[in-house]
Here is the input.
Amino acid sequence: MGEDPGGKAVKRVALMGVALESNSFAPPAVEEDFRNRCFLDGNEILAEAAKPSPGMAAELVSFIHTMNATGPWEPVPVLHYESQPKGPVDQAFFDTCLGEIEARLRDAGPVDGVFIANHGAMTATGSNDPDGDMYARVRSCVGPDVAIVGTLDLHGNISEVMVDAADVLVSYLTNPHVDMAERGEEAALVMRRMFAGLRPKSAFIRLPLTPASINLLTASGPYADLIDYGQRRKREFGGRILNVSIWGGFVYSDTPKNGLAVVVTACADADDARSLCDEIATRAWNDRARFRKSLTPLNKGLDLALANSKDTSKPPVIFSDSGDNPGGGGSGRTITLLESLVGVGAKGVYYGSFFDPELAAEGHALGVGVGFEAAFNRGSKDELAPEYRVRAVVKALTDGKLVGRLGLFAGRTLELGPCCLLEIGGEGGILVVVISNRQQTADPGFFEMFGLDVADARTIAVKSRGHFRAGFIPWFPPERVFEIDTPGLTSPVLENFNWRGLPRPVYPLDEDAAWTPPDR
Here is the structure.
């Protein structure tokens, strides 16, 4: 253990994360899924964070940079694994992760703090709360006096175990998510304050309220108003409140810990935390009817696309293929919206991105300019993503390596694998981006890597739920964004699912759901 220039022992902080957003209706996430996204062990974490465009969670990068900027410290990098959103994590793999964390913490010796960068909505094939299992295991390893601070996506599903094991949990404040670096910085500054003697106290409430993700935007709407209210009330406490976090949750995890959750952390007084937590939760519950939202029917979306094809004086529009968001566990392979656009003869459409490694490889084998019968989902028996054949021309090819430019992926290196651009319906028809690594299209780079200009499209359709809004805001203000009612594993129509784990009754599925504030 080193010393700072003043002769004091330098604080040692362990760094770790196992990040997955689990959709219980999607196939399980296995080790390969994490290796395909981000799989860093030990000092690989520090090396990745030092790159100009790291391929890892921005909050972890920011935590490291902020700790570096605020004084001496000794990082103890443990592991950081991330997967694309998928189903429950394979229990055997997750147990191996926990074993590695425990062994590496033991081998590293005593630490003064632990920073955990998880998503917060992970489930496992053998556990409803692997995030809680991880927090509890870490706490048992390091003891009661070590500072544990974690950052979590605002789609996290928060459990009592997580709150009890951590000292401070910090949620994102934005959706689309554009404040990950700020939250990592906040977590580092909280850690520094704890090293200086801060002893925070938290209060937690989870409501029987499980909105679909499209109802959790933070630019406007009920969730935006709730987060703004929490931040305003935090300021009005005159420095006595350390953090207010409000998790909208991820309903598709389908677990007993689902539900909009409020955690208020006070600097010293537990009564401050409890009173503000109760106040915010009551406000959220009283406003629950606003957490309903209508989608754009498919036929109306097709009419809009056709009108834009014929009249170039109309402003361009962007569609969310809302039922198939790879960023929420969607397969990236449903064909309803694409097939429908082809069927009505829409023109000037950019469609991104279809996950089909076999088709992308065929495009590369054929070469630019070759026409062929494209078989999307070749041989598939999935009723949500059946085989679809259509004449197409290979327009462009790329290796799929890019650095995100706007919104969620800004500054982050993405590896999409071999990609091809197919043209369907003749010149000026529909341009379809086909990728080899499943990912939501939340950045203009998915089109720009082929030399396309987003401004040239009449209609853009993306497999993304909400993050595309930040990536495409320069071209598409909110009034030109349409969430199309399409089938898939992320459909915002919650009645489409066979729920097994949600804490029923729960709003909006059950109008008779009830809640009363806790009797303190």
Observations:
- Residues 91-108 form the longest helix (18 residues).
- DSSP finds 14 helices and 19 strands in the chain.
